[in-house]
Structure formats: structure tokens, C-alpha cells
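Board notes (copied after class):
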Amino acid sequence: MPDETTATASLSDSSNPQLLVPFLQNLLIQSEEIDTQTAEKIGVLVTHGDLAVRFWARRVYNRFQCIKSFSDDVTPADDEMPEKIELLHRKLTAVNRSPFLAMSVIEQILKRREPQSLLFLSEYLDRCDDPFQLSFLTKNLCAYFPTEEVLQRVVPFLKHTDSRVVANTIEGIEKIRSDKGIPIFTQMLRHDNHRVRANALKALARYDSEKTIYALSEMLKMREKPHFVIAACHAVCELKNTVFLPVLAENLGYRLLFDDSLRAIRAVDNEESKAAIMRRHDDFRYFDRKLAESLGEIKREEAIRHPWYKSIRLAKAVLATIAAAWLLLYLFFPSPERVARARLAELAISADVKSMSAAILKDDQQQVELLLAAGVPADGSDEDGSSFFHLCARLGHQEIFDSLRGAMSKTPQNQASDSVESRIAAALNRQGENIYQTAIRNGQTRFLQYLAATGFDLSTRDKKGNSLLHYAVACNQEDILVFLLMQKQDVNIKNLLGNTPLHDAVAAGHAKMVYWLMRLGRADPAMTNNNGFSPQDLGLRDLFKEE
């Protein structure tokens, strides 16, 4: 077991991952038990800013929690329980910013079903703002503590802006099996989110059907509270039970309730529902038109007398004129895209990326122009994952590359971009190469000269920090290296390993590359990498010993 003084010193230096990680690994391998103070400090480390520290701290914490709870098959004494609960409470407070860790601790607390945990979790629920933890808590708090008190605690979360929280709260309330849940679920049937509505409907269906019907019938009679009646109508639309038809027919006499009541009656969709509407048909004057419309009884003569009839006819005539004008333009003034597609059809060429790749490989400038005009995207890719720009860079097709770049700059999503060149240069193929690296690997010196002359930045670097000089050395492309050196590229630039192009040239044994780097670029042979080695240390002199 590690020395206690060393343990305290290592844990106290929580800002140094290089000390913490080996110490935690040593604890995991050698220790058989740890004291309470060390366990608490490790519990804090599970939220450390360093990923490695968090990982090993969780491993150590979980291992010793397991040993403490289950070793020797001994059940903890009752006076030890509160201490265990308090430890879990402190652990939850420590990891509250990590949703998945926090939910794991919450689950452990809930499984204990301790009364003091209910108060602690209720207070934690009030101050928590993470939707993942709120969803988990509102659902499982009701499952482990199915009381009216918990019901009142979670009801406010039905108004939460996150639909996941609302849906899980409904599932939690359903587990309490309280009659107060019926009106709550009924009102949630009007929610915008489909999952919330589905959970509410499933919750209603699981209740006693007689209680549900009674509760909905009472809600339909609460005409002084129209929002309750409207919510109940939504429930009836889902349940489709004819027992609600009489009270729904009565509600047709109330202006605020008419539309929803009529919708609920029609949702039942049988002869009895139609009869319920017909029985009320002669009792109303204000709603006569809507009732008649629901049964398809409005006649054309009544529609003509409508004050908006002439305006509607005029609108229809205007729309018909616009449609006719558009048809004439389409037939006699075809767009460039239609012309290009017709020309491709004559040549038996499909307007797709496969045809574009074939045209680039054949260096067919005319066919490329037709495909671009036909709507083939300039930034598309072939079957191997190489963009059209990569194909041009591999083959050295400057004219086609220029056409593709011009087409890409005209697309709406690229017109507001600062630089189309930067977007083209940033694209990678499946090998992780940009267009510069593809051109270098295939020895396309003239293509690189073209890129430099048309505004492309040759000082780019890849994700490993390698410059184009590094890549030219790696590919042993002497002409390209000389061109890049003449472009005044930084010859002493380092990658993420601290290696300069001269390091790579010496390591690869490329004598000519070393010669040009030192002769034309004035590379510094004394510069060291991250491991402290210079090109001289790597055998620069041995490389030219024979010469």
C-alpha cells in the first residue's frame, strides 16, 4: 500500500496530472483498502479537468466502494448507513457538472430508499439545471418514492422547456398511480411534442377505464374552465369512446367550446356521432353554418352570398395567370441547366458525380462545363472519396480546376464566404490529404505553381503540424522542394514532434533533399526536436561521408 504521506502529497497536488495518474494507478494495483479521507479526495478527482485523471479516479473510486460494501459478505451496521448516504450525497454534489456520473450516483441513492435522501434529492432537483439529470430524477424519484408529496414536487416540471423532461415526468407521475394524474395527463395531450402526447395517452390507458371515463366526463362538464374542456376533448379524440357523445353534444352550444367539441364528436366517426350533430342542428343559429359544413350541407348559393366570395375568385384568377405565365417561360425560355441536361441526354451521359469523375480523368473540359451547368456540384467526390479538386491536383488539370473553382464560388452557400480558395484547400480525401499534398505526392510541380499564382496559400500545415516542405521531403520530390524553397517557405518550421524538414530528410537518408535544404534554404542543422536531437545527431555528417 502506498505511503500515507506520499498519498496526501500526491492528492493535494490536484493540478498536476503527471503526478496524479501514476499514483491512482498504483492505488488500483497495490492497495487493498483506503481510508475515508483518501476516498473523499478521490471522489473529488472524478470531476478533474484532465481526462486521464478522471478515468483512473473513477476506476479507483468504484473499486473501493465495491470492496467496502460487499467484502466478506458482511452487512453494514445500521449506524454506518447514514455515513454511507452522506458520502453519496457529497459525491453527487462533487460530480453534479458531469451528467452521466451524477445519474449513476443518483441511482445509487434512490436504490437505498432512505427518507433523508428524499429531502436531499428534492432540494437537488430544485437547483439542478441539467436536462439529462432532471429527466432521470423526475422519472425515478416517483418510482422509488411514490407519494403525493413527490407528485407535487415534480408537477412544475411539466412546464419545462425541454420535452425530454416533460415526457419523463409524465412516466414518473404514472408510476405513483394517483387519481390526480388523470387530469394532468389529459391536459398534456395538447402538448406540441409527440413523445409527450404519446406518454400521456399511454398513462391514461393504464388507469382504470371507469375512473378515466368518469374523470374525463367531469372535465367536459367544467364549462366555466374552457381550457379543461378543450384538453378533455383532445383525450376523447384519442380514446374514441361513444360514452362522451351526449356531453359533447351539449358543449356545442358554447361558442368557446364548439370547435373542439365538434372535432371530438367527429373523431368517434360513426352513425351515433353524426346523429348527435343532427340533433343539435336545428337548435342553433350562430353555429348553423359550421354544423352544416361538418355534414357537407352548405350549398353553392349560400357560398355566393359570402362577402369574401368575389375576393376569393379574383385570387384564384391571379394564381391561374401566374401559373400560365410560368408554363410559357418554362416551355419557350429554358434555363441553362435544362439546356445542359438536354445536351448531355443527346450524348447519353448522366448528370452525376460519376460522369464528372470520368470527364476529369479524360481531361474533357467541354463535358465538365456541361455537367457543371446541369447542376452537378463542383465540390463533389468520386467513389474513392477524392474530391474533384483532388483529382485535378493528382492529374495536373489546371483548366478544369479553374472551372470547378468558378462554379463553386457561384453557389449560394459560398457567395458569402471570405475565400473559396481556403474552403477548397481545407477539404481532405480519405487518405487525409489536401490538394497541395496530393499534387506533391504525384510530382505536379506546375500545378503547385498554378496554385501559388492564383491566390492559394502554400504555408498551410496539416493536423500533425507538417508543412508542405515536410511533405515534399517525405515524398522525395526534389523539384517541388526547390520550388517551395524559392517561394521563401520557412525552412526551419517544426511539426508537432519538433522536427524540421531537415530532420526528416536526414532520417530518411535523402541526401539531395538535405543538400537543397541547406544550400538553397539555409536550414539550421543545430535545431533540436522535442526529444533534444538535432539533424547532426541523427547522422547528417555520415550522410555525406562518402562525398
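Comment from the instructor: The two ends are 61 Å apart (CA to CA). The mean pLDDT is 79.
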